[in-house]
Structures are given as structure tokens and as C-alpha cells.
Amino acid sequence: MKKRKICIVTGSRAEYGLLKPLMVKIKEDNNFILQTVVTGTHLSKDFGLTYKEITNDGFELDYKVDIDLTDDTPVGISRSMGLAMIGFGKAYEQLKPDMVVVLGDRFEIFSAVASAHVTRIPVVHLHGGEVTEGAFDDAFRHSITKMSYLHFVSTEECRKRVIQLGETPDRVFNVGAIGLDNIKDMKLLSRDELEKALKFKFNKCNLLVTYHPVTLENDTSQEQFQEILNAIDQLEDTNVVFTKTNADTNGRIINKMIDEYVEKERSKAIAFTSMGQLKYLSTMQFVDAVVGNSSSGIIEAPSFKIATVNIGDRQKGRIKATSVIDCEPTKDAIYNAIHKAMQHKGFRDTVDKIINPYGGGDTSNKIKNILNNFQVGQSLKKSFYDLRG
Fold first, then answer.
1. How far apart are CA 63 and CA 317, in angstroms?
2. Cα gap 204→301, rounded to integer Å
3. Cα-flanking dihedrals φ and ψ of residue 219, to 5°?
4. Which domains does the chain carry?
């Protein structure tokens, strides 16, 4: 039987960390040929040239699609999306993949999928059906769903939403969140090993902070992130590990503020452009709370039995464990939420007993097995599945 060429597209450090277990499974399976295409922040000096992490992990890069992320204004992002469409068209023409696999909802992934759609390549989409009302990723995600052929979702609620968008149920699979595979399978660092790797000592209390721009709000990044810093300044005996933003509109504003804060508070704060999955997850297991508006606080943090302080509207609409505390982006609300996460005994007892709604791992193996057994027809025509019958 002819081996199928499975093309994995990745545009960011976090996304690669989630896709890596699946890439390993595909690479090891004799029925597949793994193709890897990198784009987005992987190719940006400002974001750490993280494509090198992929090659260091033993994967070959089959194509690089540079979309020039030097400008994070709306005009600059639009230009990057156009460059992505052109670049992916050339990539697919050269690689001729049998399937393209993407995860999530970012603008560069939207362009990669749109190019695959007009090239008539079946798209496999992970993490469709989710809702993030505060980001324009929401519209990208649902659009990617409509251009995709196979859907691997993280919860049953997400599966229902994808079907509600008109996708046939026999092409929509609830396999859980792929990020939990790393927690289950990766040998995480001990506290001593982690402190040496980070060159940073933990304190009595510790926070992991990741905050991205709320892209459907106008110019709120600086104001809201300053509120977070003001709340952190009120905490005693607390050290902070910051991870910087992705390439969203106005993300550089937040990164500059992080750098300035760490320069001023070297004894208690450190920042990373890219930690990599091993150090990021190892850090998560030793902090008292994850603070910000990253999806990792919603999806991965509950598996460590730690609290998440979810600030503002970026993740509004996501399915959340009871360990997630939602709060407004104001200093007092953030401080009170962090205090509850770290000090409130009743809440801490609840966190210790939570079950992660996104599953328990082994997602990549489930996906690989379905890809092995699912036969794509000669035509990619799809009928709209109408819930009204």
C-alpha cells in the first residue's frame, strides 16, 4: 500500500509543543511519511527562531514559509496572511501531501488551510469547536472547521459545536486535548533540575504568567497588562516566571513591559521568549497558580491540580474546570483572584479533587489510529449536516 504523506503545519512554539507527540507517532508509523512545514514565529528572530527546537528534536523541515512578522499592526498582520497564502501554495505544490494537519485558530494557520482548500488537499483540524470570544481567533477557528475534512476535538461539547456547523458526525472525533499527552508521557524536571535550567530560584509562592492581547478589543494591551503587574507588586514572598506573547496585534507592547519589569525586579522575576514544553510544563508543576489568559491555563493546568487565574475575555466561552477563576482585568480583581488561588483553603481543597474536562492523554495515539483507518474518498465534497433533519 502506498504510504500517505501527512503534512504537519506549525507556526508557533506552543503549537509545536502540542503537535510533537503526534509528529513522533506519524514518523514512527510505516504507513505514513511525515512532512513538516514551519511558518509564523518559528522563523522570527524576535520570537527566538524556534524552528531550531524542531530540528533539535530530530525532525526534518520540508519547507519554510516566511510571513515577515516584523509588523504586528492590523495592516502588518493582513500582509503576513497574504504572504502565508502565497507561501503555502508553493509549499503544497512542491510537497504534494495527501493530508495537511493543523491545530487551533491562528491567522497563519487560517491561511495555510485556505491554501490547502483551494489546492484540494484534505485538512485534518485539531481543537475545533472551541470558543474564545475575546479574540479574532474564534472566527478563524470556525472558518478552518468549514474548510477541513476530519475533525479531532477536545471535548464532547466541542464535537457538538462542530456538528452544529454542518459537519457530518462520522468525521468528527472527540479525542481529548493533545497537550495532555506531554503531561502523561514526558519526564518532567525536578525542582532542583528546573531551577538550574532556568537559572532562577523559586520562592515560598510562585506564579507562571502568560498574557496575550485581547485582539477584539481596541488598544487594551498596555492598560490591562499594567493592571496585572500592579497586582503582582502587592504580593509578598512571590516569584514570577513570565512567558512572552505570540505574534498577535500589539503583542510587542506586552513583551516590552515584561522586559522592563524583569529588569527592575531581577530578584523575583524572569522572562522567556520560548521555554519549550519540557521547561514550561516542569515550571507549571511547581507554581501555585497560572495567571493570564493563555489556553494552557485552561487546558493543561488542571491536570497538575493547580489553580488558574483567567483574566479578561480572551478565553471567554471555553469549557473550564472548577480550578479556573475568572476575573476582570483590574488590579484589585486580579489580586483577589490570585489570593484565592494561593490561600483559600476551601478552594484549594476543590482544586485537589478536580478532573480535567479535556481528558487524560493518549490523544496522539487515538488520532494516528483514526488516520490509519479512515479512507478519504476521491472527492472532498461535503454535504451540510442539518440538525433539523
1. 35
2. 19
3. 55, 45
4. 4-178+361-373 (3.40.50.2000), 189-352 (3.40.50.2000)
β 63-65/99-103 pair status: unpaired
Which DSSP helix (H) or strand (E) runs through 26? helix 13-28
Which helix (H) or strand (E) element contains residue 308? Answer: strand 307-311
Instruction: Write the pLDDT tens digit of every residue in 292-319.
Output: 999 999 999 999 999 999 999 888 888 9
Which residues, given as ranges, of the chain have pLDDT below 50?
Answer: none
Q: Using one digit for the tens of pLDDT, what is the confidence trace for 333-343?
A: 999 999 999 87
SS3 370: helix
d(CA 240, CA 232): 8
Helices (H), 173-250: 179-185, 191-198, 221-232
71 Cβ contact list (under 8 Å, min separation 6): 77, 79, 80
In whole angstroms, what is the distance from residue 137 CA to residue 308 CA?
21
In eight-state DSSP terms, residue 159 is H
